[in-house]
Amino acid sequence: MTNGISDQVLRNTHEKGKISSSSLNFEPKSIFNEVEAEFKKEDYIFCDDLGNEWADHITFNMQEPSISFIHSKFGETSTSASNLHDVVGQAIKNLGNMYFTPDDFMLRKKDKLIKTYNQSDIIRLRQGNRSELKNHLCIIQRNPQLYRKCILVCSFISKNEITNQFNSIKKGKKVKGNITQLLWIVSSFVHAAKEMNVIPVIYSKP
Fold first, then answer.
1. Is residue 30 part of a domain?
2. Of 68, 173, 196, 205, whose CB neighbour count within 10 A is largest?
3. Looking at residue 119, what DSSP letter applies?
4. CA distance 19 to 8
5. Rounded to whole angstroms, how far apart are CA atoms 68 and 147?
């Protein structure tokens, strides 16, 4: 668990914000907008949210090279396990999809690649050239250095709070049931990702 991502991403007031038919971007104070700004160095940023989604955002980096699935969840700071359960469940369910072929990606995402987001003017391919996407995916996947990351962006988790609670467990101290649930959920995510040779990352508040 890390707070290495910009604090601004985790201090926003909503997940996507208000979206109208004329919206070109997600609202400035939304997690979605800040995630796109945070990962602007990626060659491709694709918003896959809604419908048959694999992640909220999928990014491709030609230089590293890497494929990242980003799952974002907004909520007030809490040690409740329910929010984390939801986002981890979504992430684990889609780990297998991280091993798509270029043909499979282009086929399964063809409609989203040419359509805008949820009756707005927000283009789903937030960054990158659609005409070069398939070729670039082929190049990335042929590279033996390719690695995959599954990233959770959780505004409702405080790293310091969770670390303190987990340290109490290590010391054999009694903690509330929801803390034990949190530990189990985090462990499940980490183990599931590593079994798929995927790097697990959780961004939280400090």
1. yes
2. 68
3. T
4. 20
5. 9
